[in-house]
Amino acid sequence: MDFTYDDEQVALRDAVRGLAGKAYSDFEQRRRTVADDPGWDEDQWRRMAEMGLLGLPFAEEDGGVGAGPVEIGIVCQELGRVIAPEPYLTSVVLAGGLVSAVGTPEQRGEVLGALSTGERVLAFAHDEPGTRWTSTASEVTAAVDGDTWTLSGTKEPVLHGARADLLVVSAALPDGGTGLFLVEGDAAQRSGYRTLDGGRAARVLLDGTAAAPLGTPGQDVTASIATVRDITRVMAANQALGAMQTALAATTSYLTSRKQFGVTLNTFQALTFRAADMYVSQELTQSIVDWATMVVAKGDPAEVATAAQRAALQVSRAGRHVGQEAIQLHGGIAMTAEYSVGSYTAHLTALDHLLGDGGHVLRELAEDVLDHGALEPLD
Amino acid sequence: MDFTYDDEQVALRDAVRGLAGKAYSDFEQRRRTVADDPGWDEDQWRRMAEMGLLGLPFAEEDGGVGAGPVEIGIVCQELGRVIAPEPYLTSVVLAGGLVSAVGTPEQRGEVLGALSTGERVLAFAHDEPGTRWTSTASEVTAAVDGDTWTLSGTKEPVLHGARADLLVVSAALPDGGTGLFLVEGDAAQRSGYRTLDGGRAARVLLDGTAAAPLGTPGQDVTASIATVRDITRVMAANQALGAMQTALAATTSYLTSRKQFGVTLNTFQALTFRAADMYVSQELTQSIVDWATMVVAKGDPAEVATAAQRAALQVSRAGRHVGQEAIQLHGGIAMTAEYSVGSYTAHLTALDHLLGDGGHVLRELAEDVLDHGALEPLD
Amino acid sequence: MQLELSAEDQEFREKVRTFFTTEVPEEIREAVREGRELTKEQFVESMQVLNAAGLAVPNWPTEWGGQDWTELQRHIWHEELQAASVPLPLAFNATMIGPVIAHFGTDEQKRKFLPPTANLDIWWSQGFSEPDAGSDLASLRTTAVRDGDGWVVNGQKTWTTLGQYGDWIFTLVRTDPDVKKQAGISMLLIDMTTPGVEVRPIELIDGGHEVNEVWFEDVRVPGENLVGDLNGGWTIAKFLLGNERVGVAPVGQVKGALARAKEKGAAVLADDPLLRARVAELENELLALELTALRVVARSADGAPHPASSVLKLKGSELQQAVSELTLDLAGSGALVFGAQEGSGLEEWAQRAAPTYLNFRKASIYGGSNEVQRQIIAKTILGL
Amino acid sequence: MQLELSAEDQEFREKVRTFFTTEVPEEIREAVREGRELTKEQFVESMQVLNAAGLAVPNWPTEWGGQDWTELQRHIWHEELQAASVPLPLAFNATMIGPVIAHFGTDEQKRKFLPPTANLDIWWSQGFSEPDAGSDLASLRTTAVRDGDGWVVNGQKTWTTLGQYGDWIFTLVRTDPDVKKQAGISMLLIDMTTPGVEVRPIELIDGGHEVNEVWFEDVRVPGENLVGDLNGGWTIAKFLLGNERVGVAPVGQVKGALARAKEKGAAVLADDPLLRARVAELENELLALELTALRVVARSADGAPHPASSVLKLKGSELQQAVSELTLDLAGSGALVFGAQEGSGLEEWAQRAAPTYLNFRKASIYGGSNEVQRQIIAKTILGL
Known about the structure:
The complex is a heterotetramer, with 2 copies of chain A and 2 copies of chain C.
Chain A: H1 7-24, H2 27-35, H3 42-50, H4 69-81, H5 88-102, H6 105-116, E1 122-125, E2 141-145, E3 148-159, E4 166-172, E5 178-184, E6 189-194, E7 200-213, H7 222-257, E8 259-260, E9 263-264, H8 269-298, H9 301-330, H10 340-354, H11 358-367
Parallel strand pairs in A: 1-4
Antiparallel strand pairs in A: 2-3, 3-7, 4-5, 5-7, 6-7, 8-9
Helix pairs in contact in A: 1-4, 4-7, 5-6, 5-7, 7-8, 7-9, 7-10, 8-9, 9-10, 9-11
Chain C: H1 7-23, H2 26-34, H3 40-52, H4 71-83, H5 91-104, H6 107-118, E1 124-127, E2 143-147, E3 150-157, E4 168-174, E5 185-191, E6 197-202, E7 211-221, E8 226-227, H7 233-245, H8 251-264, H9 266-271, H10 273-299, H11 309-330, H12 348-359, H13 370-381
Parallel strand pairs in C: 1-4
Antiparallel strand pairs in C: 2-3, 3-7, 4-5, 5-8, 6-7
Helix pairs in contact in C: 1-4, 4-8, 5-6, 5-7, 8-10, 8-11, 10-11, 11-12, 11-13
């Protein structure tokens, strides 16, 4: 049992921290970047590709690096620390993860190769208006005529869907179950807009749109979608952890420098105690995020599912606590878009609502609560 | 709309405050009183009878005073302020209330007359091991042979059941529904013990025990039991409010007098802010308790049921908050039986668990939450 | 103690309710209901409709358009405004500078300013906070230096809500730098078209532009624009902030928001007992808050704000935030969409959930932060 | 990063687990599981069984019965003790005075005290807190005045846990009243049978008697009973309190209590989604706490307590209280019954719910209150 990084992992962390920090440790730079479409920096994406980050999760034979969940978690944490706007989580971890899990060897080689080099950006078109964080599709349906598959229906919100070169689309299959398809970005009717954390999302309309089945045509891949969503959830938790750490650091720094009534704010015990509670939340979160990341590394899908729920619940509670308190302890300045902390809170809120918020997973966990005795994290 | 007492109500409050304070404003006196059976002071009970308090809720033709819910609430608040151990709530409001609601004119006159003069103490034997705050009986069953009714089964816990001269017992009727019966105290097999707040309760075993039907024999009176429980819940909320007020006052007084690190505790902002939050809880509670008391005065049973749930939820949340914080802000001294605050917390805990705790009523309220729009307290 | 409104108060309520729901344009009320940003014209039109009926500034002296109502009637008026989704009369005019001028102003100031203030012909802005004087208002640095009969003002104000619409601004300025900080402050009224006044927008985290910085560079202000005594500004500020705290709990608004969340999220709620419990808990807390507001109203009969009004501000802002958080969660992943977007097909309420949630983080900061309220409760009420 | 225990640690865990569940009498472990009050004899028997196998004081130097384990192994030992409901080795002996004597004591003190301390032949009590020196320990007033080679002690200690069983008491006393308060304190070991020592019980709100006042009236103490340097007591106190904070989170105990609550309250839980959600939330927080304890263990390899151990104390006590509150609520009206009552037919767990709930209010007060822990986090970790 070991909760520390090895030397290579430390080196990776330092490298990513350097790259991400150079781009966005000046918050004004992030603000300028998210102001214009696509909401992130194509040059930075290229640099991430060059560093090997975009291919990190994928097998070497698919054009990737073949690194493990701990390494992906490190990248996500570091991106979270500067709330980097690049679509690493949704394009690489989520959409790429689905191609890696379900695609044929040819599809994997072609799509993941282009993803790893930064040549093509992917998006996962899955959520549908009226559904609530499921692993299945219902409104978007697939039809087949001979070997030709077409998709119809609306997907929304699709994170980074307007910019994506290639969409991974889930659809209800003719014979039941949910399948995955590849659709060229410009083959769909897309309208993009801002998300709450300065990112981008889109409405994607499919209307008899030609689509290539991902993997075996007609196969129900609900379980694969669920697992890749679970893994993404754990990586989103890593990203949230990084964001929390920066939000708390900004808060303590503000408390020791900002004066009110002739003294710095850290003179007020009520405020310092609340900062201490934020630290408690952050430390507990780090523990469960590290643990969940290691559970992903072990690889059992059922264990991953539970670990993802548990990480999501803790991150949701802590993210709201830290995000809300960071604003409150700063006061008015944190309400402004110019200052960083409000954007960190917004990003934590967005991550929480991406794949199922705290209340949603609590409900799932509560249903099974009588099925086990004491939790044993090391067994 | 008026949230203030009229002159007579103020006079009643002052009289009860005087009587209760004389007995128990010295906390050591309460401690001595609860140490020995029956856990309260028979002389004080007599003085309460003399002041007319024991007959307050009952019609004049039944030997009572015919006062309204606001007056009963005043008495309960004042008893709560000194956590007087006398069984006003369970004997007068609850058991007496049932006799008043269900009894025949003869029964009302006889039983309520003796209750009002302090001659006979009543208890309501209703809870059964394994049930959870219902208005029905199931384990204790009633049998009838000709005109003779007998009861069998176990009631527990029965508040003040060992001392009671007369038991009002609920039982499952032969033809369905729940009936109420009068059983002489010494006709049942009783074993008494302490409750968590220094009060008394008992296990009551009935084994073919002769019983007199209260009111019309064989009649299902579940609805009456529910309503009297609801009214009692509102009066318990009044009692809890009084206890909270004293607990907060003791806390602020301690904070301004106790020194640590060479200064009084109110120098520590984190502590004073928490006391402020206790005040917020207390004020919100007073509002909802006053309101629920006035809803009882209006008299519609469905409205009373909702008001009782709402008061119980608020009182549960606030009682735990105030009770727990009162101990924490005092520190170690509040853990001792000699000091008052721990006993206030214990009493608040007992009141919360008497007729259905906060979580229990929240669940009931949550079930109906889609059945109404915005709540309008004045409509 | 009794719960029912008197026949007179019931009639009063019926009267204002009917007026609000029939005389104020539905389009404006719908915008309020949906949480949309109002245009300046909508604010003005709504307030003028109210003012024409004597319903805009009831708390003013009757000779200047006020009403001889009881505290309870004012409360009913305030709640019914919110229940009907009528924009509240602009606070800067109706509850801040209006009462100040009526109380401290010269006769000339009253004649000149009060009628257009009640009718929103003048849009007032508030110039109190400064970058280094937030909760510690008295440490403000904007200076006014004597220049003949008038003043020359230099400095910077911030958090000036809706300052982009402002015609005039009432400011606290330092007129004597050599005395205890509270003792050297005066209140000046400044025409915002005066040369040297500059308004700069501040973008907030909800993407909106509701607050501003206001800069003063050698701004000349006539001597007649001093309100009250020279160096008497702190007294006026306390008077004004005291008024501000009355009726601060946005009970009606939060009630409406919660009822609406239930309606919009009914399908989700029907399926989830934990979310239903959150609603039930919030409804109960809101009920307690509303009843507390009624109790405070009853006890404020002498006109002075009851100290428990800090409870209203504190709890009111917490509930406002909690309801916005619930709405966010009801919206699910739809909450990612930020603001009413042309490109999105999701329902408007879901699209507004996130900006509203972020915007209401301010509720516990502005208008006396919740820390300030706790301080008031601890000191004033509990004697700590 | 990896989750699995090494083969060696797995074997270690298996070994201690087997020992605890087979060698420590079931009757004692059942009493712990049920939350009953243990007799003195049960404490002693259990610790002697452990000590005979070298499992009572692993954190001591190996020459005095300690074990050369890794921090992780100590953690496993501690968790397995709790998982098996074995009474923890008496803290006053095993984690307080034992390490102090081993570190600061003379060779003679070590030989005289350490073996009987490890074997609980001497039952130690702690004489630190005083009525006016709680969180502010250094302001203690009990005095020791030189008298020939020895000392005469006068004063009062309080909150002396299980002092009714004490043979000896280690005390902090003021030996120099004329210097800064921390600089005039020494540690003395006092035989509790010495004339002038009086132990008076304090009844707690759970009806139990686990703490005491200890009075000293002209108590003569031999000079050889001074531990460490004269006026060096504050250093020892900090050393001791630092040890105390390690492993303070009663993870195993709380886990057991929560699992047991689920088992006993299964019928109620099956019927109530809100209570199930409370359980699920607590399980998750407890998981996070346990994992944090593991992380802190890993980082404490140099022997110094990691500052994050304040997180363990703070969150551990909160969860201990929350689980006791959940159990109380599961018990319904049965929670009214106070303590195991002969006259009651309700299940034992329900009868113990209320006293346990009330007793655990102490968890956030004793051993460095949660306010002190927040202070440590704010100052030491966050630099505030």
